[in-house]
Design goal:
Layout lengths: L1 E12 L16 E11 L2 E7 L12 E4 L4 E4 L1 E6 L8 H8 L4 H6 L4 H10 L2 H17 L2 E7 L6 H17 L3 E9 L8 H18 L5 E6 L6 H12 L4 E6 L7 H7 L4 E4 L5 H8 L5 E4 L1 H7 L6 H6 L5 E2 L13 H10 L5 H8 L1 H5 L18 E4 L7 H4 L6 E6 L2 E2 L1
Parallel strand pairs: 1-4, 1-5, 6-7, 7-8, 8-9, 9-10, 10-11, 11-12, 12-13
Antiparallel strand pairs: 1-2, 2-3, 5-14, 14-15, 15-16
The structure holds N-(iminomethyl)-L-glutamic acid and fe (iii) ion.
The site of N-(iminomethyl)-L-glutamic acid has 13 residues, from helix 3.
Length: 411
């Protein structure tokens, strides 16, 4: 099956097929004006100038006329909690009235509130509610997503979440990665030590046996799990081949960055309270992608992770949505890109690279996803004609997508 996209005003592509961009490299994106793009069997084959197209065509089965619109690589969303039950707008109002995220959590709201709700839902109902959000993000240009468990907080409900993630994976064209986040909070009715035992002796082996998660995550932060807890959990996950991705430094400098780097985590996420020493450590640790979540800082009125400083120190950085019912009820990656520019002072090119190629790298997928490059999966979207790439984050609420493609198929 050969698909050709013609009359592309500007094609955002990467001839070199790079898998990670660090420091100064992040401020550049390759473009071709007046371009075509050829996709074969769902994979990017070649692209170039319209005037280089053979006069007798390329024997395409399907032609899509971009009518002067741009073509960009789909977003990769490397950090979501999109499988959840109900919603938490009550806490949203509590926050407006002055309660902090940590205070709400201490009162038994927050993550435990979502766990109570999730417990009451059947797997089918949880799947149905989650799929609404999955369809929403695909329509908004996301082509790869990571989804975490962590609203079960007992063995049966964590497995229920992970089975729903597997069902989503089986029913959408988008690539879905599953992460076990049993260590999101201490489950109701447990003290910390008993919950740690449950995680290590029961949950992780069950998840491993059913091969329900490729990654393992821990909320390594003040009031949740310590660096020592985190190491024990990661070691238990490693026995089942689960690679770490860590929540760290959201509520306080937690020590989670060092644990992440030492344990070869693919990413360390949040980083709103990261220290200078941790920035230096990440600049020297190419295996671990620091991932900022600007939507979380926006929604919680918190400091933003200092991604500008991190890029200037030579780091590669990613951004993700953190789509979840408590701290970020949005999976809109274009808005996350705008926030990264407006609030974190990333250049548009840096923010787009952070949300595509580096985000794919934060999921271990950048050999196949995250840019329009020969041999990579054909995940892209076509926009209306736009004045420039910089217009995308600038026009921060303007929808830009006219058609989105995953694996070379229109969704
Ligand atoms: O990434 N920080 C921890 N977990 C989520 C929030 C979860 C919730 O409040 O439901 C986050 O922001
Ligand atoms: Fe999160």
């Amino acid at each position: 099956m050969r698909l050709i996209v013609t009359n592309i005003g500007t094609l955002v592509c990467d001839r070199r097929g790079r898998t990670r961009l660090g420091g100064k490299e992040m401020s550049h994106i390759d473009t071709i004006c007046d371009a075509y793009l050829l996709v074969e069997d769902g994979v990017v084959s070649v692209f170039g100038k319209m005037n280089e197209l053979p006069a007798d065509g390329v024997g395409a089965d399907e032609t899509v006329d971009a009518r002067g619109g741009m073509v960009l690589p789909s977003w990769c969303d490397a950090h979501t909690h999109i499988v959840y039950a109900g919603s938490r707008e009550g806490e949203f109002v509590d926050k407006i009235r002055g309660l902090s995220y940590a205070e709400i959590a201490r009162r038994g709201g927050g993550i435990l509130n979502s766990a109570d709700l999730l417990h009451t839902l059947t797997e089918d109902e949880l799947y149905r509610q989650s799929m609404r959000r999955v369809r929403e993000i695909m329509a908004k240009g996301t082509g790869c997503v990571e989804i975490k468990s962590g609203y079960g907080l007992n063995t049966a409900d964590e497995l229920k979440m992970l089975r729903v993630i597997r069902r989503i994976k089986d029913s959408v064209p988008m690539h879905v990665s599953a992460t076990f986040l049993g260590a999101h909070a201490v489950g109701r009715g447990y003290d910390k030590e008993r919950y740690m035992d449950l995680l290590i002796d029961e949950m992780i082996p069950e998840v491993g046996r059913e091969r329900l998660a490729e990654f393992i995550d821990v909320f390594c932060d003040e009031g949740f799990f310590t660096p020592d807890d985190t190491v024990r959990i990661l070691e238990a996950g490693a026995k089942w081949g689960m690679k770490p991705k860590i929540h760290a430094d959201e509520l306080a400098a937690s020590g989670g960055v060092e644990v992440a780097v030492r344990n070869g985590a693919l990413s360390v996420d949040h980083l709103e309270r990261i220290t200078d020493a941790e920035v230096e450590l990440l600049a020297r640790s190419p295996a671990t992608m620091p991932t900022g979540l600007p939507g979380t800082s926006f929604f919680l009125n918190m400091p933003y992770a200092p991604l500008r400083k991190m890029i200037d120190a030579g780091c590669a950085v990613a951004i993700a949505s953190d789509y979840n019912p408590g701290s970020t009820p949005s999976g809109d990656m274009k808005f996350a890109v705008s926030l990264a520019c407006i609030k974190m002072r990333l250049l548009p090119a840096e923010a787009i690279n952070a949300a595509t190629i580096n985000a794919a790298c934060a999921m271990g997928l950048s050999a196949d996803y995250g840019s329009i490059a020969p041999g990579k999966c054909a995940n892209f979207y076509i926009t209306e004609p736009l004045p420039s790439v910089d217009f995308i984050p600038y026009a921060y609420t303007t929808p830009i997508i006219s058609r989105a493609f995953i694996g070379g198929r229109k969704i």
